[in-house]
Amino acid sequence: MLKTKWFALILTLSLFLAGCGQEIKDSVSWEIEEFTFINQENEEVGLDDLEGEIWLADFVFTNCTTVCLPMMANMTGLQKQIAQEGLDVRIVSFSVDPTIDSPEVLKSYAESYGADLNSWDLLTGYSPEKIDEFAMESFKTVARKPENEDQVVHGTSFYLVDRDGVVRKFYDGIDPPVEEIINDIEILSAED
Q1: Domains along the sequence of the chain with CATH
Q2: pTM greater than the 0.85 cutoff
Q3: pLDDT score of 53 more than 80
Q4: Which of 25, 72, 75 is CA-nearest to residue 178?
């Protein structure tokens, strides 16, 4: 019985210390500009609301016929994996087609993927020009809807954002390296 308790304690400590002293490889340092947008519950969510939290961000839209489909499925799967690992992470998806993606449309869209909306904000409530500018300034990616088109040209990365609102790393959202993302979240979780 005592051996079991010691083993459990050592295992717990080793998992906790796994993130300590490590650094995120290929890290970036992109500060996110202030924002306040509307989520799927018609509530304002801004950078100040995310302060002190680790979050994953991406850019999607509900009318997408290509890359958003696997991105949403992958982010939903990643959300479940993060929960299984006991990590506290929010997800923030910025709609790149805000003229179509109302809060109600975004909510229905996320629910169709089985997303846990307790820790996932899908944001809208801005102009197409604003999200394109915001995406480029804060995430170094495009979010542009060509004239007379129904599809939006946008990046397909997942972005890991630290507690200070700084993008620390980005990953392929079509084929995400789940273990690497989890490991990087653990590293950020160990930072104070």
Answers
A1: 2-190 (3.40.30.10)
A2: yes
A3: yes
A4: 75
